[in-house]
Amino acid sequence: MLWAIIGLPGSGRTTLFNLITHRGASARSGKGADIAVIKVPDPRLDELVEIFQPKKITHAEVEFTDSIGRIGKGGAAFSELQRANSFVYCIRAFDAGFGEPDPITDLHVLVGELTLFDLGVVERRLDSMDKLIRSTKPGERQRVEREGAFLEQMKAHLDSGGVIRDLELSPEQKKMVDNFALLTAKPTIVVINCDEERFAQKESIFAEAREGHKNTEIIAIMSQIELELGELDDGEAGAFREELGLKEAAVDKFVHAAYKAMKVKTFFTGGDPEVHAWTARGKATALECAGKIHTDIARGFIRAETIHYDEFVEIRDWSKARSSGKLRQEGKDYLVADGDIMLIKFAI
Fold first, then answer.
1. CA distance 168 to 171
2. What is the pTM of this model?
3. For 117-184, which CATH class?
4. What is the pLDDT of residues 174-184, one digit of tens each?
5. Predicted confidence band at 77 (pLDDT cuts at 50, 70, 90)?
6. Are strands 188-194 and 86-93 parallel, antiparallel or unpaired?
7. Distance in angstroms (rounded) separating the CA atoms of residues 256 and 117
8. Fold of the CATH domain 2-102+186-262
9. CB-based burial of residue 326 (10 Å sphere; 0-12 exposed, 13-18 middle, 19+ buried)?
10. What is the C-alpha separation between 325 and 285, in angstroms, rounded?
11. Which whole-number Å values give the CA distances from 43 to 112, 183, 291, 314, in the listed order?
């Protein structure tokens, strides 16, 4: 799950990246980009560790990069952005010598640049459709014609200023969009990067920013101030956050927004050897989640012994959960819920 932080020059994109990666991050390089790997904070995992006392603890992780994200003159090629799974739009709402900020205009400019790229992709594909339809076998022609109609729909939507992620897509259309790697289709968070003055005005900025971005998470973060708070001990930082009206640390707020935008749920496996937080997107089945743990487990899937976290913390013991009848026996088509704890039985 790679998030690319993108923004116009002077948006504070690198400061935001440094803030997100400041606490408990590891780093790696991939395909020319510097990537920070963040362990996702989750109090449920902490509680399961307290119960199981495992030898190993594995958090869910999120990856971030800002090295491909500068939009504008001299910035990255848009084709480089296609390899990201999702985007963070970093929008300036501070002065710091750059002049009076205009976050709504900057948001429109940024989205406009991405939209133009998507229009180019769609139009090039449309240009080839007539030839493709003529050369397609009769049995496949209807599918190709549906693709052409959908391309026309996307073109009209983009021309009107819309973004692809706001369209209601059928499974077939979603597959087409994924194949085209359209930038405005990717899950997105808008981060209004504020100073203290504009942070106090965030609700009015949110109201304007949400126009035309109905399926986009929008949050406000004071990146520079939060970065400085990160240098303090927890007690001092907590006192300053309370004074500033900050209910949670910026990293926690950011990760929660990322999960919501990606429609990610967390499920757990736990025991003496290891407590592990896993992630799955959308309507993931028990079989699909088993495959995330190991392909052999999915291949030999028998059943998933399952209990929700909220029930388990009342019992606090796997054997008692089983003997009390709280442990459910779920099949491969069970839709895993956020917070499920699973023990998957399999045979190969």
1. 10
2. 0.86
3. mainly alpha
4. 999 999 999 99
5. low
6. parallel
7. 29
8. Rossmann fold (3.40.50)
9. middle
10. 22
11. 39, 33, 25, 15
**pLDDT tens, residue by residue, 254-265:** 888 989 999 999
3-state secondary structure 224-268: HHHHHHCCCCHHHHHHHHHHHCCCCCHHHHHHHHHHHHHCEEEEE
Two tokens, residue 278: 């896993």
Domain ranges of the chain: 2-102+186-262, 117-184, 283-346
Largest pairwise CA distance in the chain? 71
Closest CA to 113 of 87, 94, 93: 87
Q: Say which CATH topology domain 283-346 has.
A: Ubiquitin-like (UB roll) (3.10.20)
SS (H, E, C) the chain: CEEEEEECCCCCHHHHHHHHCCCCEEEEEECCEEEEEEECCCHHHHHHHHHHCCCEEECCEEEEECCCCECCCCCCCHHHHCCCCEEEEEEEECCCCCCCCCHHHHHHHHHHHHHHHHHHHHHHHHHCHHHHHHHCCHHHHHHHHHHHHHHHHHHHHHHCCCCHHHCCCCHHHHHHHHHHCCHHHCCEEEEEEECHHHHCCHHHHHHHHCCCCCCCEEEEECHHHHHHHCCCCHHHHHHHHHHHCCCCCHHHHHHHHHHHHHCEEEEEECCCCEEEEEEEECCCEHHHHHHHHCHHHHHCEEEEEEEEHHHHHHHCCHHHHHHCCCCEEECCCCECCCCEEEEEEECC
Torsion of CA 116, 118, 123, 129, to 10 degrees: 180
Beta carbons of 187 and 261 less than 8 angstroms apart: yes
Provide CB contacts within 8 A for 221, sequence distance 6+: 16, 19, 191, 192, 193, 194, 250, 253, 254
Q: Alpha-carbon distance 252 to 237, whole Å?
A: 14
Which pLDDT does position 140 carry in this prediction? 83
Tell the residue number behind the tokens 């496996």, with chain if given. 269
CB 126 within 8 A of CB 132: no
List Cβ neighbours of 171 (8 Å cut-off, separation of 6 or more).
none
- The first and second tokens of residue 27, run together, are 């780093």
